[in-house]
Amino acid sequence: GNPRNNMADERFSPTYFHDVGMKITSPSRMDSTFYAFDINTYPVQSVWFDPTNPDTLNVIAYSSASSLISAGTWANGVWYVCEYYGGLYTVEPTTGDMILIGGSTQLNGLGYVDTSGTMYGCDSTNLYIVDRNSGVTTMVGPMNNAGIMIDMAIDSYGNAYGVDIIDNNLYSIDLSTGTATIIGATGYTAN
Length: 191
Known about the structure:
The protein is mainly beta. The protein is about 0% helix and about 45% strand. A four-stranded antiparallel β-sheet has the order 1-2-3-4, with no helix packed on it. Strands 5-6-7-8 form a four-stranded antiparallel β-sheet, with no helix packed on it. β10 and β11 form a beta hairpin.
């Protein structure tokens, strides 16, 4: 597969924890390096680490965003991230340079479908299509989840998933309607 956001390992939970303190935005397709934003530092900093040694964070640069980074994904080899209060950026993974593409809805998660070239984002309760060239978001529909969909991921087959931190369930997300359907409990209390 070609993972987008790492949601499979509780050490790299898609939400913000004081013990982990980072948001895993996506593993690089080019090598076995993971890229993330460490939110336990101020200002927030971009980091990389080897997944076989996740305790060693290597600082790339401090974030130039005005608030924390709340979402991220890779699309066609480009690292995209979203600021908590809105704003879509690209990030150069070797330097940490961030380029603001444009304003966006406040998003908790981003995902990308290779076959269609479509980027999606979610806030706590709605699914959006995200224009990678402008940051403009268009609502697909409500997810009808329990309350706070904290992140989303899209696999290489175009299947979308999300985690809600109110009911701690994993959901499948219909990209054509936004409707989220419970798959089951994550076994992890995220909030």
